[in-house]
Amino acid sequence: MSEKAEQITVVFEPEQNRSAACINGKHVGECEYSVEGNIWSITHTGVDPAYGGRGIAKMLVLKVIGEARKQHVRIIPVCSYADRMMTGKEEFSDVLKK
Questions:
Q1: Distance between CA atoms of residues 33 and 75, nearest Å
Q2: What's the pLDDT band for 1 if we cut at 50, 70, 90?
C-alpha cells in the first residue's frame, strides 16, 4: 500500500485563538490560547495520537510564538507542553511573561 507523502500545514487562526495543524487536509492538532490585554495564555496543545512523534505540537506552539512576536504580546505557557518547551529557554525570553 502506497501512501501519499505527508504534507503538514500549520496555520494561525486568530478568530479561533489558536494555531491548527493539518496533514493532507485533515485536522490533526491545535494550540489554543486565551487573550487578556497584551498577554496570551497558551491553555492547550494537542495532537491526534495517530500523528504523534512528528514534531507537530512544537510546530503549533512555535506558530503561536511567532504571531505573538509580530503583535508584541507576551505569553504565559499554562499547558504543560508549552511550559516545558518555553520555560528556561533563552530563545523564548522575549515573549515569555515573567
A1: 9
A2: very low
What is the spatial distance between Cα 30 and Cα 19, in angstroms, rounded to a whole number?
A: 6
Instruction: Locate all alpha helices (DSSP H) within the chain, ordered by sequence.
Output: 56-71, 80-86
Give the number of residues written for the chain: 98
- Per residue in 6-46, pLDDT (tens digit) is 899 999 999 999 999 999 999 999 999 999 999 999 999 99
Residue 6: the pLDDT is 82
Dist. CA 9–CA 25, nearest whole Å: 8
23 strand-pairing partners? 8, 26
